[in-house]
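Lecture notes, part 5. Sequence design as translation. It can be helpful to think of inverse folding as translation between two languages: the language of shapes and the language of residues. The source text, in structure tokens, appears below.
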């Protein structure tokens, strides 16, 4: 029997086989999460997208009313060549991504990503360095050896504390990372981890009075905006706590003060 694609359970595989849908799968193109050693940083790849949903259809037009043409599954990558807007104004998010075969995939379940490989930094200070994942995803292992146990999957632009560099059993340089939620260590290929510069971690507008800075979270619009005085300096979509049956959000409303900032924190399950 064929092996289920990575990210697709055997139960799902059998279900799709029974429905005769496997012929509509795209050829599997998951990210190769182990990289060969490199001498220097590489130029970022073209715009890619990582499928975040368990399954996701591509259509022949930017609408779910179009014809289904291909089926993707979680962690497969697609090349994004453009975007289009669904004509149905009732939809909250109307943006679709165009793929090279002129099909369209709903943007709400696709994370924009790139692939950038990095040189290894060996002089890691004792307090560690903050870094981000610079590839669509990479697997973190129990030891610097791809045959060891996978601890967890790390995704694009998530931040992690690098505590040391280590030569791998495969000849590839690895970083030792600290999970500051569980106080456990694991290892990831150094080429997939970009050390953040001091400039990137410096405070924004340090001369502007802190009391006149504020962040507004608009729950109904799922939108966040940041102000310095009356000037809007940043805005983005937000994903807050879910809506309860009562219509209230699990994210509480009100006015709150920021008393602690962290450059990175692993937060999950309370």
């Amino acid at each position: 029997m064929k092996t289920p694609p990575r990210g697709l359970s055997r139960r799902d595989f059998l279900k799709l086989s029974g429905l005769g849908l496997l012929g509509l799968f795209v050829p599997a193109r998951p990210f190769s999460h182990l990289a060969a050693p490199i001498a220097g940083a590489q130029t970022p790849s073209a715009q890619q997208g990582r499928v975040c949903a368990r399954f996701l259809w591509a259509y022949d037009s930017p609408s779910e009313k179009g014809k289904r043409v291909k089926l993707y599954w979680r962690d497969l990558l697609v090349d994004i060549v453009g975007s289009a807007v669904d004509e149905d104004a009732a939809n909250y998010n109307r943006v679709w991504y165009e793929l090279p075969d002129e099909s369209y995939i709903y943007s709400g379940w696709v994370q924009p990503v790139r692939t950038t490989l990095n040189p290894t930094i060996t002089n890691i200070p004792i307090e560690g360095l903050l870094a981000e994942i610079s590839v669509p995803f990479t697997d973190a292992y129990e030891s610097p050896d791809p045959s060891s146990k996978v601890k967890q999957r790390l995704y694009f632009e998530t931040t992690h504390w690098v505590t040391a560099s280590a030569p791998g059993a495969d000849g590839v340089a690895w970083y030792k990372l600290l999970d500051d939620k569980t106080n456990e260590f694991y290892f990831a290929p150094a080429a997939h981890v970009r050390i953040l510069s001091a400039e990137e971690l410096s405070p924004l507008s340090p001369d502007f009075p802190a009391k006149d800075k504020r962040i507004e979270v608009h729950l109904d619009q799922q939108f966040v905006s940041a102000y310095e005085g009356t000037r809007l300096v940043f805005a983005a979509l937000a994903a807050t706590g879910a809506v309860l049956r009562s219509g209230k959000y699990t994210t509480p409303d009100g006015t709150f003060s920021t008393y602690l900032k962290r450059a990175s924190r692993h937060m999950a399950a309370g």
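The translated text above is only one of many valid answers, since several sequences can fold into similar shapes. Residues 48 and 79 are 5 Å apart (CA to CA).
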